[in-house]
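Format notes (please read before filing issues)

Several people have asked whether sequences and structure tokens are stored in separate files. They are not. Every record keeps both together, in the order shown below: the sequence lines, then the token lines. Line labels are part of the format and must not be stripped during preprocessing.
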Amino acid sequence: MDEFRKITADAQNPFVLELGSHDGYHTNQMCKILNERRATNWELVAFEPDKRILPKLQKAVSTWPENVIIVSAAVGKKTGKTTIWLSGGEEKRPGYAKQRFTASSSIRQPNTVLQQWPDMTFERSQVDIVCLDYQIFEDRIIDFIWADIQGAEIEMIQGGLDTLARTRYLYTEVGKDIYEGALDLPELVGILPGEWQIMGFYDNEPLIRNNTLVIGDRLNLGVNQYHSGGENPILTIMVLTLPQRAKMLTRLINRLMCQFRTSPNVELLINQDNKTKTVGL
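Then the structure lines:
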């Protein structure tokens, strides 16, 4: 959690998404960190489709009713209903720590996970599912996404391209073929929108930074930002996105403008189909 503390420390109004909150253990830890310096000036949205454990999640975040929103749904590439494999069972092997397997539910069919945990069981059910891009986040910058969705990363990305384009950091589980079609790390990074960089591994899982938004841990719009001195500075931004996303770009630019004492002249270098064109604002 030290990296989470560092990442959110410089955010003016921290905004965090947790996908697969389970019983709220990590949710509670993140809330405590967010609340350390800011009283009520932060927000966390927790997604959890398994209604069996929702009471535990609700209890874990009950201290912060004004800051935490719980969405009782899975995250994927569509909105509606979907099949989920609800995990259960209990560890019975000698020499293994006793545990109940309630944290491995997935909208992807279990595969090699059953070889690793032979006492784990799965039961099919129906749950609500939502796309990140269909959620009302008002084109906000998302400082951190914690994704623990058991092999469903590809659906999360397919249904959240715009949301991920506005996300500074992604921390996610990765496990090739543990569930049917689950991605390995190079495959996952390869389909994220923009330019992403692996910053390290924490509890054996990768922390990935969106370099299209973050340079040197500061908010940015791209890979090349500079300005000249004097009364009329120039801000040039390389935008690795589609030009029709004008609303999102406008919000991001307005936030960047606050870094300057005077209003700069702004140019966008928009890269589309391997061609770059300059657009003045």
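For reference, the curators noted about this record: The first helix runs from residue 2 to 9. Residues 240 and 271 are 6 Å apart (CA to CA).
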